[in-house]
Amino acid sequence: MAQIEIDPAVVEARIMTLGAIGACFETGVCRAALTPEWVEAQQLVERWCQEVGLTTRMDAVGNIWGRIEGTEGGKAIVSGSHIDSQMPGGRYDGALGIIAA
Length: 101
Description:
The protein is 35% helix and 14% strand. By secondary structure, the chain is an alpha+beta fold. It has one domain. The strands form 2 sheets. A 3-stranded antiparallel β-sheet has the order 1-2-5, with no helix packed on it. Strand 3 and strand 4 form a beta hairpin. The two termini are 17 Å apart. 18% of the residues are buried. The mean pLDDT is 85.
């Protein structure tokens, strides 16, 4: 299995970038589902997935799926989070789970 390296600076930068979309109050996010801010965030996350080599698709309700094919067979692993936020939510609301996935 390949070693995965995580750069904390990249994680922080992506949280801040995603958190800027729909930013409200000092550290909050107002990004309700189906709003222009949500669409913009969806497009950004899809681009990030593609940049690291995942194939992407959006399902009928707007979930973005990023997939990388395994090399050893076996069962799939699914991980993820949500791109929308509570009104208002914190900048980590959903974002940390997306980036960690």
